[in-house]
Specification:
The protein has 47 residues and is mainly α. It has 1 helix and no strands.
Length: 47
């Protein structure tokens, strides 16, 4: 809703697509970091 009025999907589609693109990018980045951190923990010598 904008100003108390419903907003059409056409008006929000670009914003939603940009949001989804950014979320996918963040998810990919976190996945790469998680895999890298997991490998580092497995390869680091135990104390």
């Amino acid at each position: 809703m904008r100003g108390g009025l419903p907003v059409t999907l056409e008006a929000t589609e670009e914003i939603l697509q940009e949001f989804m693109d950014r979320m996918n990018s963040l998810e990919s980045d976190i996945s790469r970091r998680w895999v890298g951190a997991d490998a580092w923990f497995r390869l680091s010598p135990a104390e």
